[in-house]
Amino acid sequence: MTDTPSDTEAKAPGLMARVADSDILHSFLASKVTVVAALVALAFFIGAAFAPWIAPHNPFDLASVDLMDSLLPPAWQPDGDMRFLLGTDDQGRDIFSTILYGARISIGVGIVSVLFAAALGITLGLIAGYAGGRIDAFIMRLAEVQLTFPAILIALLVDGAARGIFGNLNRENSAFWILVFSIGLSFWVQYARTVRGSTMVERNKEYVQAARLIGIRPGLIMLRHVLPNVMSPVLVIATINLALAVITEATLSYLGVGVPPTQPSLGTLVRIGNDFLFSGEWWIAIFPGIALAVLVLAVNLIGDWLRDALNPRLR
Amino acid sequence: MLAFIIRRLLQAVLVMLAVALIAFTLFRFVGDPVNQMVGQDTTPAQRAELRESLGLNDPVPVQFARFIANAARFDFGRSYQFKQPVSDLIGSRLPATFELSFVSALFALLVGIPMGVYTGLNRTSILSKLFLTISLIGISLPTFFIGILLIFVFSVTLQWLPSFGRGEVVDLGVWTTGLLTVSGLKAIIMPAITLGLFQMTLIMRLVRSEMLEVIRADYIKFARARGLPDRIVHFRHALKNTLVPVITITGLQLGSIIAFAIITETVFQWPGMGLLFLQAVQNVDIPIMAAYLMLIAFVFVVINLIVDILYFVVDPRLRVERAVQS
Q1: Domain residue ranges in chain A
Q2: Which among A267, A277, A300 is the nearest to B151, CB-wise?
Q3: Which part of the chain is the ABC transmembrane type-1 domain (chain A) (predicted)?
């Protein structure tokens, strides 16, 4: 026990040095597009995480919202107001602030549902790859059938069914988890397939056989020995899936089956703004939409780069 | 060949059964079908009677068998919200969705293939880079936002195209079409572009990478050496050999076009199946959800089957390999 802390102490500077000198960092800095994308994504994450402190107004605090300020155009237009950079909506809420708060919900749902999908997919993939035989065949057949359908359709179906089952619960509290559940369920297959493939390779390696020989339980072998060795492709899938999950959440919210208008995500904001498009108040829908597109594009670019950087065949 | 088709058919039937099981579970266990069908003032005795007449007291496997038998005749009962047979509702909406999907696929092919050929042949030109950048942005933009941008530019600002609906529709008996009237044609332009844009970028990238491969092949060098003009080399020799994967992908994508029509139909208030399905999800109208799920699964399975068989017919190498194996 005594040598454990010194162990980590010895490792810590080594780790920093390793990162500073790694291929990954070099390839990251060499790709200017990726650096820009990472900065944009970082700005979004910070803006979302600290929305209550950064946003110039709190759009959900009724005391600070004034109906007199409703439907103001962006600040650079003749009727614009400098207090509201991107204009206001029909209730006088500042669009820039609602975008920050909306990004908070969009990114929140995105990250939690990617974690859920990854956990589900990794578990099933590990079990399928490690156990093999009938269990493997069953899980993979399930994955194949699901793969025939587009994820958005699965998410819509799960959402509809979940709302049928939990219909009596408070809509505002359950909406977040129903979304996470339906998006997570529609994206697990990719993780399961990847993890299964690598697990089948790792299963026959000597360290696993050794672990089995000294009598460690299969669950523990999968978790402690196999899992760390199959994780790196999962990281790439998770990054690309974050973009997909954010799009799916926005789409569901736009379609009116996502988060309720009282806690709008970026998709809900576009849905709200859609009604004002025809009366000339274009900024209510267009700005949240642009924010969503830029966020997704940035995450996609990082994912693309990560896929190439971690692929040994491309080195 | 026959054994291959039979095995494929068997797999297709299995997939359909699995989907039917999901649809049945939805119908039977999400909420109580009887409660959904009757009003507040129905007596318990009447409810029990309805329950018995619907066969909900039978063993579950018997109910499942009956569900499949009904599904095969496309009988999914009555919609909870409209109180009409589901098959009538879907039947009246089907032409709108199929027409939209067809036009979108056509758009994706007619624009995507030339763009792919161009970017494949002129890798370094500025126009190619522009096309590739546009396609990256096109993939990142959510479908509904593309639709909204189009409406904003062409309906609200320029007022060239209608922002919702199908325009004037001609009734041909079993089928209604908007492709024969001017207003119908104008109405389909923006929905078709919105729906087809993603497929277009996909096809463009596919044709581009295939062209890059093919153009290096020996027979292209020979064709050039024989002094054939570029146009013939590019389109007769090169493009022809890139088309097999393009046809496959387009075929497989046709199913997801129909599914993604849900979003486009919502943006443009297009009176198709997708809009019906979305209303069903919002109101937990299980019979419509179950029927839509089965229909989409059927479309997917049939398309997959056709593509598999076409592959077999088109690519002689597959046949030779199988003959050698057996």
Answers
A1: 26-57+69-74+81-88+95-314
A2: A277
A3: 103-303
The tens digit of pLDDT for each residue in B198-239 reads: 888 888 888 888 888 877 778 888 888 888 887 777 777 777
Q: How confident is the model at residue A312 (pLDDT cuts 50, 70, 90)?
A: low
Calculate mean pLDDT across residues B45-62. 76
- At the second CATH level, the architecture of A26-57+69-74+81-88+95-314 is Orthogonal Bundle (1.10)
- Contact call for B140 and A257, based on CB within 8 A: no
Residue of A nearest to B17 (CA): A145
Half-sphere exposure in the Cβ direction for A46 (13 Å, CA): 7
Which H/E stretch holds residue B212? helix B182-214
Taking 80 as the threshold, does the pLDDT of residue A170 lie above it? Answer: no
Q: Which of A79, A290, A256, A95 is nearest to A171 (CA)?
A: A256
* Chain B residue whose CA is closest to A161: B30
Selecting from A153, A167, A293 the residue whose C-beta is nearest the C-beta of B141 gives A293
Asked if A95 contacts A272 with a C-beta cutoff of 8 angstroms, the reply is no
As given in the structure block, the two tokens for residue B88 are 């009538």
What is the CATH code for B88-263?
A: 1.10.3720.10
Contacts with A138 from chain B: Cβ below 8 Å: none
Nearest C-alpha neighbor of B196 from the set B102, B96, B93: B102
